[in-house]
Amino acid sequence: MTRRIPLWVKLLYTAFLAVLVPFYWRSYGPVNFLWFCDIALLVTLPALWLESPFLSSLEAVAIAFPQLCWAVDFTAHLAGIHLLGLADYMFEPRIPLFVRGLSLFHGWLPFLLLWMVWQLGYDRRAFAVQTVVAIALLAVCFFFTPRPPHPTDNPNAAVNLNWVFGPGDEKVQTWMAPGLYLALQIVRRAGLSPADRPCGRWRPARRPALRRRPRSRTRPRSAPSGWCAPRSPIPTARGRWCAGRRTRDSTP
Question: Over pLDDT 70: what percentage of the chain?
């Protein structure tokens, strides 16, 4: 089987995750892995090794557009422009510099996923499945994860995952009902994902071709008198149909 993803890409990505996961776990806590981007980071590992069009397409739909916005916001922040606030934590001195360096994966992961979709093909089931996953994940974050602000004993602990309580991690939004805000988040993240439209125009994932059994073209060398292989055998009083034409019996 021909490899479409180079082995060195798989090994390098695996080594990166082996370093990132323990540092993230210690710095932010295990709940931090419920962010859409962190889930995509973990799912990309089996997608690489299995060369799975479905998993690659699933995560490209989930994070490609939001993470491209993160890259734009991070670049603007470097230029001294506060644009979206998505990458503000990258400039927080309370977070260790090495951990912030690991977080730079937000900038290159969407390009990796889009390249994988280009190599492996786009699976059209991804949008429907990701919609269901996004709704479930946002509901879990809303009901079971901590609200902002950060706890005083652990200022780096993950709060307000996927921004289900409002923009940022400093306070809960108060300009609309919490349930209404959650519904808007579901529509934004699940129902109107703009990443599916460009991906949908790419070539579909390759499907294994079904192997057909070869038809036997051998016929008897000597056939009895009046024999033929009828296509639609419909007997009549004076003859029969054979090979698309009517032939008469040899007997009167």
Answer: 74
- Which position has the token pair 């069009």? 53
Task: Give pTM, 2 decimals.
Answer: 0.74
CA separation (Å) from 189 to 4, 43, 182? Answer: 30, 18, 10
Residue 77's contacts (CB-CB under 8 Å, 6 or more residues apart) are: 83, 87, 88, 90, 91
Q: How many residues does the chain have?
A: 252
Rounded to 10 degrees, the C-alpha dihedral 38/90/111/84 comes to 100
Residue with tokens 């021909």: 2
DSSP state of 157: S
Q: What is the pLDDT of residues 218-241, one digit of tens each?
A: 555 555 555 455 554 555 444 444
Helices 126-144 and 178-186, axial angle in degrees (round to 10):
160
